[in-house]
Write a structure and sequence with these properties.
By secondary structure, the protein is α/β, with parallel strands linked by helices. The chain has one domain: Rossmann fold (3-Layer(aba) Sandwich), CATH 3.40.50.1820. Helix 4 packs across helix 6. The chain is globular and about 50 Å long. The termini are far apart. The model has no long low-confidence stretch (mean pLDDT 96).
């Protein structure tokens, strides 16, 4: 396994106690603790946050989509529709609050965060269908929301990156929604965990938690050879017709190999793809150590890519 860059070491030691080995009995309490921490985030008054309760998938509950709209934004504006991370078992839409609070005014776009149902209570395809329902609503109401429907892209980190990748595939397959781009941050997309990096003793999101996340998300499908590619996008054999893509990941991340392999599959299929690999960076490096020089460099690269993606109508 590559060595951790020293610039991340203090952040890893600080965050490690908050990321225990997961089991089903702890999820409810851990979710509440993390949600309470998110509610204490300091946000600016430059962005107006609005929660919309919108129709969910057929025969399923309604879902919540949070919009992040910069004050004084000129519309219609581009939009990044985001799925939060958390291994398919944790997380909340408020995870995106701080990032959108900074990025939306700077880049001039509307952020959207969907509250999808979590596993194991709701396994595949429920969470993905929630994300699709929220995206459908976003396209249907784009005009009144001040969104340019030709510039709506999807994105996410870790499990959120996995859902974003699956959502782009699902939108392609159904042919109803024209996704403009996809932003995949260290995406969790390979349920087989067969790559070398999946076996590394990484400091953040270890193999045991990754396996727990996949067991929870796939339910009865787990361990089968016929897991659908919409559940685990690394299984997709046809990636043609997908939108321009940015994939980024650190080398001290159990998801490194699957991220690199997916990006390689995309550009071999003719998809406009950028791949950024950060040496010595752990999983979620840009979140746990946002001020580290490599994180700053990575964040600027993402924003530069988004600016270009937003200009393509």
């Amino acid at each position: 396994m590559p060595a951790v860059d020293p610039q991340f070491q203090l952040a890893i030691e600080a965050v490690r106690p908050t990321m225990p080995l997961l089991h089903a009995g702890m999820l409810e309490e851990l979710r509440e603790v993390r949600r309470a921490n998110l509610e204490r985030q300091q946000l600016s008054d430059r962005v107006e946050r609005r929660d919309y309760v919108v129709p969910g998938p057929p025969n399923a509950p309604e879902i919540t989509v949070r919009l992040h709209v910069p004050v004084g934004l000129h519309t219609p504006a581009p939009c990044l529709y985001s799925m939060h991370g958390g291994g398919y078992v944790l997380g909340h839409r408020a995870i995106d609050d701080v990032r959108f609070d900074r990025w939306c005014p700077e880049l001039g776009f509307i952020g959207a965060s969907v509250e999808y149902r979590l596993a194991p209570e709701t396994p595949f395809p429920g969470p993905l269908e929630d994300c699709y329902a929220g995206l459908t609503w976003l396209f249907a109401h784009a005009s009144e929301l001040g969104i340019d429907p030709t510039r709506i892209g999807v994105g996410g980190a870790s499990a959120g990156g996995g859902l974003a990748a699956a959502l782009a595939l699902l939108a392609r397959d159904r042919g109803q929604l024209d996704v403009a781009f996809q932003l995949l941050a260290y995406p969790m997309i390979d349920d087989t965990m067969g790559a070398e990096s999946n076996r590394w003793n990484v400091p953040i999101w270890p193999a045991a938690n990754n396996a727990f996340g996949w067991r929870s998300y796939l339910g009865d499908l787990h361990g089968r050879d016929d897991v659908p590619y919409l559940a685990a996008p690394a299984r997709a054999t046809d990636v043609t017709g997908l939108p321009p893509t940015l994939v980024f990941v650190g080398t001290v991340d159990g998801l490194c190999d699957e991220s690199v392999a997916y990006a390689s599959r995309l550009y071999r299929a003719g998809i406009a793809t950028e791949l950024h690999v950060y040496p010595g960076a752990p999983h979620a490096f840009d979140s746990i150590a946002p001020d580290a020089p490599m994180s700053v460099r990575g964040t600027e690269a993402v924003k530069s890519w988004l600016r270009a993606a937003f200009t393509v109508a």
